[in-house]
Amino acid sequence: MRREPGISGLSVVFSAWHDPVARILNVDLLTVLIAILLPWSTTGVVIAAVLWIIALIPTLEVRAFLRSLTRPICVLPIAFLALALVGTLWSDALWNERLFAVRPTAKLLVLPLLLYHFERSTRGVWVFIAFLASCTLLMAASWLVAFDPAFTLKATGDRVCGVFVKNYIDQSQEFVLCAIALAYPVMILLKEKKRLLAGLLVAIALSFIVNMVFVIASRMALATMPIMIFVFALLHLKWRSIVLVSMITVIAGLAWAMTPRLCRTVETLSKDYSLYRELNIATSVGLRLEFWTKSLHFIRKAPIVGHGTGSIRGLFEQAATGPADDEIALRQFGASGQVVANPHNQTLSVAIQWGVVGVIVLYAMWLFHLLLFRGDGLAAWVGLLVVVQNVLSSLFNSHLFDFHEGWMYVLGVGVAGGMVLKRGAPGGVLEAQHPAKP
């Protein structure tokens, strides 16, 4: 028998330059890679994103792509970046600080590209599965670190119980998103009487929640989870079920509040506030109150277009105050002497730099992205959940500008939004994921 020569992996990659179907597949696989790397690596996500853009460019149909950019869901992220670039012109910060402050908005340019690509792709669910699988693996690693603190990639001085890589805030955001997002497929599987698979997803969701209860979780994740559960109940359950879910959530919250770790957290919040108010000590609660108070003062001075891109740190340096005889100690330990480039609130961060104009762009983007997911189906549910989580968590952090949470928003809205647009009817009315049979 004559043996045919095998096809090398390199030739398969090069064949994608001539095969449109293979090019689309390569872009999909790179998106899956980004979803896998996001819970684990910052550098890996950046490299994969650059490769993704390079792979996407040959697949663009120029006229269709330009038409897609005229939609508000695409115009507003681009306008955000444009505002950040123009805002460098009236900023008093050094040019390296201005350009550095533009970087957090640059990832929003990927959002229109994702919307365009997944409006034509059929593999958006692959990205969801990849992110869920990656977070599940991270959750398993978190349990291992909880039992063996040496099992971690973090340096000795930065080790935190239950955190294998990155930090507990990013980890909690991932776990909450995955746990609540699984509610919709579980509901669909139970309706289709696929109880085994539904039970598996329930077990994974509960594992995320149990990890946050007994290992580690951020306060922001604990605050946003009940609201996200209520959103699911309001959209997908009947009124009796909504009441039942609300009661279960309240009971679970009370039980959770009785756990020793959460009791210590509540006691710490109260103690931190007292230390800040009475002694000006830089506690977590006190710093946020200090940052927000000063931020409102900065906004009043330049309410329309703000102080310019990258101006936040300079403003806090000018506002740092304290006793003249102990200024060095105050800047190290006192709340009023702290200098930051992040006021820990997305609205305040935008308003300080670009005023009311920036806030309008921010809220308009959130609003149009929420309206994009007003239909039914898995993609609409995941996209809605991503936007709601980002809006809520941005009350206490600048999560749209943070690398990890910002990429969660870009990837989630881009992939889910493209899938929704693919199923959408003319005029923006979205078809249901499971249309009724005639």
Give helix % range: 55-70%
Describe the main β-sheet briefly: none
Average predicted local confidence, pLDDT: 81
Total DSSP E strands:
0
Query: Nearest-angstrom radius of gyration?
Result: 24 Å
- Alpha carbon gap, first and last residue: 55 Å
Structural class: mainly alpha
Shape: globular
List its traits.
438 residues; globular; mainly alpha; 3 domains; disordered C terminus
Write the layout of secondary structure elements.
Blueprint: H1 9-15, H2 20-37, H3 42-56, H4 62-68, H5 72-86, H6 95-106, H7 110-118, H8 124-147, H9 168-181, H10 183-191, H11 195-214, H12 219-236, H13 239-257, H14 260-279, H15 284-301, H16 312-319, H17 327-333, H18 346-372, H19 378-393, H20 403-423
Helix pairs in contact: 2-3, 2-8, 5-6, 5-18, 7-20, 8-9, 8-11, 9-11, 9-12, 9-19, 10-11, 12-13, 12-19, 14-15, 15-18, 18-19, 19-20
Description:
The protein folds into 3 domains: 11-59; 72-109 and 116-120 and 283-427, no CATH class; 125-258, no CATH class. It is globular. 69% of the residues lie in helices and 0% in strands. It has helices at residues 9-15, 20-37, 42-56, 62-68, 72-86, 95-106, 110-118, 124-147, 168-181, 183-191, 195-214, 219-236, 239-257, 260-279, 284-301, 312-319, 327-333, 346-372, 378-393, 403-423.
In short:
The chain has 438 residues and is mainly alpha-helical.
